[in-house]
Amino acid sequence: MKYASIDIGTNTLRLLIAEAASDGGIRPLVYKRAITRLGGGYSVENGIDPASASRSFSALEDFKRIIAENGAAEVMATATSVVRRAVNRGWFIEEVLKRTGIGIRVISGDEEARLSLLGVLSVIEDGRGKKTVIDIGGGSTEFVFTDNDTLKGAWSMEMGVVHLTEKYLKSDPPAPGELKGLEDSVRGVIVELKGLMDKGGVDPDGYSGHDGATLVGTAGTVTTLAAMDQNLDVYDRERINNYTLTKEKVRSMYAYLAGLKLKERERVLSLEKGREDLIIPGTAIVLQTMEAFGFDAMKVSDAGLLEGIILQRLKA
Asked: In terms of residue numbers, what domain contains 36?
């Protein structure tokens, strides 16, 4: 039996069609992604911008066609950060249902973190020990802390690459003051996160590189950095999963990318089209997380929420 999962994110819409594997995991059959920037032009007063929604409707209509062609028996679509917050989310959900027949379930940040963790750990070679998992999205970033596969705590922080780009990066290339504002903002959110961890009974020092924990990153920013570090001309999930990114390389890529004009970034090998501006705040989040938690390296996972949705369904 084939299952389809859809992740409607603030920047990227993703589709996975998979079937159950004999080892209790899943066997991916089809993977499709479309950068629609659903959160572009978002405002608290008006919610999702109609032009951004239109791009996403088109992508979901394409997903519906792919699902039908592949004979998936069950479709599970989830929406995250920007749809969670939008005052017009009801309109968006109803419009998707009318155009595609796909029903959307809006999930909380906590559930997003839990499902993402299921997916991440399904491909990481060594799931034992303490893990600090970071899932960088367009509208929010999820931080998940696990010890020997047991979830110890998860926090969804309102720190996403689309909103950071629109708020801080006005010049081309970004001015030093803009980069400083971006970095200060990210550092502030991580300080807030550590306070929430303390209140929740999770010691931040216990999930640091100094204490032997492993940092694992997932989602587009991290996988793009892994592809860039390997100079991949064609994206290869097998070469991305379990790849190790060092802090030194991340810092070097950040400085390099921040010094380029947008048009120059468009020509960078392995940098996904549509992510040319978002890669800067995304890399800043990676770098500041590594600095704040004392990590010299990050293990990369190409799996996350999409895989977690199907794995959870198979456990039901």
From this structure: 2-106
* Whether the predicted pLDDT of 316 surpasses 80: no
Q: Which residue has the higher pLDDT, 272 or 26?
A: 26
CA nearest 218: which of 127, 92, 123, 309? 123
Distance (Å, whole) CA 220 – CA 105: 22
Query: Looking at the domain assignment, is residue 297 inside a domain?
Result: yes
- Please tell me whether residues 146 and 91 are part of one structural domain: no
Number of domains within the chain: 2
Write down which residue in 106, 139, 172 finishes a domain.
Answer: 106
With a cut of 90, say whether residue 127 has pLDDT above it: no
CA distance 36 to 39: 9
Cβ neighbours, 10 Å, residue 55 = 17
In this predicted model, what pLDDT tens digit does every residue of 161-173 receive, in sequence order?
988 999 999 999 9
Please say whether the beta carbons of 225 and 140 come within 8 A.
no
Q: Tell which residue, 168, 299, 145, has the closest CA to residue 222.
A: 299
